[in-house]
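#struct-help
A.M.: can someone run this one for me? Single chain, 605 residues.
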Amino acid sequence: MTISALASSFAHGQTPEQPEYALGVSRSFSGRAWRMRVHDAELARRLELKGIDPTLARILAARGVALGDADNFLAPKIKTYLPNPLALHDMANAAERFTRAVMDGESIGVLADYDVDGSASAALMLRFLRMVGSPAHLHIPDRLKDGYGPSPAAMRDLHARGCKLVVTVDCGAGAHEALEFGCSLGLDIIVLDHHQVDTNPPAFAHVNPNGPDDTSGLNQLCATGVTFVFLVAAHRLLRDQGWFAARNIAEPDLLSLLDLVALATITDVVPLTGINRAFVRQGLKILDGLERPGLAALARVAGISPAFTPYHLGFMFGPRINAGGRVGRSDLGAMLLATEEPAEAATLADELNRHNRERQAIEASILDAADAMAQQQGDAPFVFCAAEGWHVGVVGIIAGRLRERHSKPALVAGIENGLGRGSARSVPGVDLGAIIRAAREAGLLETGGGHAMAAGFSVRTERLDHFRQFLGERLEPQREIILAANDLAADALVSASGATMELITDITRAGPFGAGNAEPLFVVPDVVVAYADVVGTNHVRVRLLARDGASLSAIAFRSADTPLGQGLLKSRGRRIHVAGKLRADTYKDEARVQLHIEDAAPAGA
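D.P.: on it. Structure tokens below:
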């Protein structure tokens, strides 16, 4: 069957021979079933009539982009998507108290989490306060000594430094005891958070799109996004009251801070929908200018340069900023992002880069042991690994690695003095954060909370088995969802000759890509593996040859010792189907198309 005939059959929601699987692939080299993303063929046709490329039209239709929203989706602008800040519950109270503190010259405490989202939120807040000339004091807890979020000690510290108002960013929604203590000291506390909670904390104001009373519909925001919207509200209040004009102060350019919002939005893996798409699209443009000393210094130590993409944010900038909170000083990331001094930025970036290398070494030493432990857990619908001595700063990374390797929810904890402190990573469709909160409410955990896809917890060793049993009871009924999450969902078929730079340019318009807007995945059917060999560090480079003589360069990263890599190497001279992402590979200033292989299967399987 020709490519056009195959495409036509898929467009009408069916495959030629096996309706359930794309190209009949029920088990690929990686053990995955292939399926085509369901889309509205009529909507795709109408999008084409607007002048949109047919492949891009199919991609938009599969993402549910309405006909009237297509232009805004392809060119997301802040002015189009920025919500009314007052739509968020308690925003009016929070913004009024904050602006009063600014106008009265009060010292404002900023208490943040130690990850990228917390660091970027803190830097955003500190930068704004610096712009308006307000004194500010930063407190970021130490991961190992203090744990996550506000503590009575943190409140005591900020109170001793003269703060009357404390703003918590990316934390605080569940810290009832600490906030009650802060209130007893006479502090007013504003919580800017995005973690799901069932009750409001005892704070002056709680601004949280995932809080119990919020109906804004902005639950996709990361904490830095919430902080940005909060600062929009505060800025408007100060302007409306004539405060800037009265003091001859230039109004802060909030749009210049969008590189921080884009960074946090990508690294916190929140959905790239609505305003988040505009945040990242505009933030990347600002980042390309490298005007922020901290990010310019990080780009130098990482050896990267513009134009930047979400990949650079998530895998080059993000891990280095996180390294301070994982194995170094927790405040390094926020200090780097907030500084305006290039010399200080260079010193901080070098230190974070060293910590990142240290983190990588610690991670490697634990991952093999954790994976061996996971392999012994058979067909359980989740992976749970805990051991004495595992560094709690890397358990989240290990959990993510195990989720990728075993295609199921993964929980990993390091144990010290009878207490396991861990992180959890889930698969689409399974709300692991809700399960962990339920375990905490059942008395099985000391602490616990987070999102559907990522959460944290602490558990006493004597309750480990009970917690494991609780997880099994909650996750076993979701086994089919967990299995289906491993299916490969392809957006469209493409021939080797049809994989062009023009196509890449077209599909890039649907970016930025990430959580909630996955990068399009293409299937190249029925091609011969003309060449396959191991290159670099465990990569498999492949040259694919189509029946019409067209060839396509491809590579499967870090796969040589995996079933996918072995399947490709053993397929030399054989016909296979290949699934992957189309990228522009630039060599000696010449761009060519390269397929980044996600999976492959024998043709005719």
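A.M.: thanks! The chain has 23 helices and 18 strands.
D.P.: also worth noting: The two ends are 15 Å apart (CA to CA).
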